Amino acid sequence: MTLNELLETLPSYARDLKLNLSSLLSQNELTEQQTWGTVVASAVASRNEDIMRSAFADAAGHLSPQVIEAAKGAAAIMGMNNVYYRFLHLTSNEKYRTIPARLRMNILRSHGVDALDFELWCTVVSAINGCGACVDSHEKTLREKGMSEETIVAAVRIASVIHGLASVLEAEKATPAVAAAVS
Questions:
Q1: Rounded to whole angstroms, what are the CA distances from 10 to 23, 35, 58, 65, 167?
Q2: How far apart, in whole angstroms, are the C-alpha atoms of residue 87 and residue 65?
Q3: Rounded to an integer, what distance in angstroms lies between the CA atom of residue 119 and that of residue 112?
Q4: pLDDT tens digits for 140-179?
Q5: CA proximity to 105, closest of 123, 86, 130, 80
Q6: Per-residue pLDDT averaged across 44-65, rounded?
Q7: Rounded to whole angstroms, how far apart are CA atoms 88 and 1?
Q8: CA angle, residues 141, 146, 151, in degrees to nearest 5
Q9: Cβ 60 vs Cβ 107: under 8 Å
Q10: 166 in Cβ contact with 21 (< 8 Å)
C-alpha cells in the first residue's frame, strides 16, 4: 500500500494530516533525498508497521537502497542515543555526564550518504523521540554547516505529520477493542 492509499483509509478527524502530508512531500525547501529520507526515518521512529511499509514502498521510487538504509540507520542510532542522552539531560546527577557512554555509533561515520542529510534525519528522529539535547546538538551542527532554518523546519513538518498519522492508525486499531470493552 502506498502512502496515498494509506491516507485514503484515514478517518475524517485526521483530514488535516492527510492534506498536510500531501503538500509537505513537495516542499521546495528540501531535496528529493531529504524529503524521502525524512519520511523513512520518521516512519521508523513512529513505530507503526503500516506507515513503515508504505513509506518504504514509496521511498523505493525516489531513493537508492543505500539511502533508505541510511535513513533507517539514522532512526536506529537515534532510537538508542535519544534514550541515553535524554536521561543525561533529565537527571540532576552531574556524575552521569562524566561516565563514558560506551555505546557504538559507527553509523554516524559510515552511512554512505550526504552528511547533512543524515544529520537532518537524526534531528527529525530526535524531535519525534523528544530528546531536547539531541535536537539541539544536531540542529546546531546543521546550521553551522550551512543548512537554513527553513530547510530544517520543512523536515520537522514531515516528521510531525508522519508521527501524527502513526497515532491515528494506532487509535483506529484500538477503536474496535475499546467499543467491545465498553459494551
A1: 16, 22, 18, 29, 11
A2: 33
A3: 12
A4: 999 999 999 999 999 999 999 999 999 999 999 988 755 4
A5: 80
A6: 97
A7: 40
A8: 90
A9: no
A10: no
Distance separating alpha carbons of residues 143 and 25, to the nearest angstrom = 22
* Spatial contact of 72 and 41, defined as CB atoms under 8 Å apart: yes
Amino acid, single-letter form, for residue 148? S
Which among 56, 46, 53, 41 has a CA at the least distance from the CA of 138?
41
What 76-80 contacts at long range (C-beta under 8 Å, 24+ apart), as own/partner pairs, is 76/44, 76/107, 77/105, 77/107, 77/108, 77/122, 78/45, 78/122, 78/125, 78/126, 78/129, 78/131, 78/134, 79/44, 79/45, 79/125, 79/129
Angle at 85 between CA 52 and CA 76, to 5 degrees: 25
Global pTM value: 0.92
Mean pLDDT score of the chain? 94
Provide the grid cell at 150.
Answer: 527553513
Question: Is the model's pLDDT at 109 over the cut of 90?
Answer: no
- Compute the residue count for the chain: 183
Domains of the chain: 3-182 (1.20.1290.10)
Cα→Cα distances 131→23, 72, 83, 128, 171, Å: 27, 18, 8, 8, 24
Residues labelled catalytic: 131, 134
